[in-house]
Amino acid sequence: MRFLIRFSYDGSNFKGYQRQDGYRTIQEELENAATKINNGNFVKVVAAGRTDKGVHALDQVAHLDLDVAITPYKLKRALNSNLSDEIHINSVKEVTNDYFTRYFVLRKEYHYYINMGEFNPIMRNYIYQHCYPLKVEKMEDAIQYFEGEHDFRAFVTENNVKENCVRTIYEASIKRTGDILDIKFVGSGFLRYQVRNMVGALLKVGTGKIEAYDVKEILDSKVRGKNGATAKSCGLYLVKTTLKGDL
Prior knowledge:
Layout: E1 2-9, H1 26-37, E2 46-47, E3 56-65, H2 72-81, E4 87-95, E5 105-115, E6 128-129, H3 136-143, E7 148-151, E8 166-177, E9 180-187, H4 194-206, H5 212-221, E10 236-243
Parallel strand pairs: 3-10, 5-6
Antiparallel strand pairs: 1-3, 1-4, 2-3, 5-9, 5-10, 7-8, 8-9
Helix pairs in contact: 1-2, 3-4, 3-5
């Protein structure tokens, strides 16, 4: 039986989503819980994508196969009872055996949060503590260059091994609430470190190191070295994953 799961997690104490020998990861925790439910037979959990160390998720999706007969309701309860409080299964749905989560993704929504005010030790793992004023209007001008279909090679750390870096960003915006900035990206998909690298460029605009139009030049150059700034992972959230059938 194949199941589609939607889950959220606090990525603060994990090495990232993907299983890595010797490190605590989201995938390993999920697979350990599912394997226990599957009478000890190993269960591989296949997500629609991976997140880096320290990145959080409110709506990640994955599929898994079980040999035991179990309802989605009972599987959700069983998984949550075998997971730490840092991970929570939000929903479980039975799907056909040929269902492969990654192929059903239509768009993903990421948010990055920045604190421009006083350092907040309580939120240091959840909002990037920049703690200095930023030129928000210039950042708003710069972020518009990311919208549309582009080759994002200049914003991918491992572009030398990635042949296709073309992605579409449907929405890119900045919302300010007091001292907190909420930077939003909605796109067809994102490459490794792409969001953090785009935010890194926006931070350079906000601090006056580059101008807004420089972001377009960096994007058009398709050269990663021209940007060279990666925002910290703590402020990044995968907020929503839209699958075929959700709309």
